[in-house]
Amino acid sequence: MPLSVRFSAFVPTRTTLRVVLRIIVLAVIALLIASSSVYAQSEVATAERALFDALNRERAAKGLPALHWDAALAAAAREHAARMAQRNVLSHQLPGEPQVQDRASKAGARFTTIAENIAVAPNSATIHSAWMRSPHHRENILDPELNDVGIGVVKTSNGLFAVQDFSQAVANLNLKQQEQQVIANLNLHGVPATRATNDARKTCEMDRGFSGTRPRSVTRFETADLTKLPFDLEQKLRSGRYHSATVGACDGGSSAGFTHFKLVVELF
Predict the structure, then answer these.
(1) Cα gap 186→246, rounded to integer Å
(2) pTM, two decimal places
(3) Region for residue 215 given its phi and psi (left: phi exceeds 0; alpha: psi -120 to 50; beta: otherwise)
(4) Relative orientation angle of helices 100-107 and 71-87, to the nearest 10 degrees
């Protein structure tokens, strides 16, 4: 049986044309918004990178080590920049907002020192130049004790709101890792017979005295840098009077992100 196919012409009505035109207009608007958002994000990322590179060039010119990018500090900086941009206010702490150390700690940063630069200007070059002309901001950029930085930039019609959060970062080490670092350091100072013990850990938790066998010397200390031993302990080691040592770490605690390690070294 033969098949027949029938075609019919479609003649759009005015209503249909209006609907189609509206869809096209909305699609164009959505495309423009998306393109604008992508461009704005790209501009912000470029500004953050430019400020990061600029500060490290300043440090290199002074013979200082480069700052490392810290994602937690960057998250805190971006949040603060967004708050300032929303209110169109330049401030290190806005009403109802935590202090910088609390913001950084909440974002996951751990540190012994923290500092912050803020600014608003048309572009990153102007912001960096203004910071370098300001003694306080310049001091933060060139501080030899600081090692990490996070930068946040938000673009508004009033310009770029920028935040630099700096820190002297502390490694996130458990108690065993802390003990191992001190043991390695003691080995380098000529005390190979060094080990971590439960008695030393108990001694660490005590304000005075010791647990277990009586040591010839007890050194309690708190630090954020386990690559260095306390000066008085180094002096004792140089005397050559000690042949072994025990090490114990205990909870040093932290307050608003400010972190330190608490240890004891017993010499025998």
Answers:
(1) 10
(2) 0.70
(3) beta
(4) 130
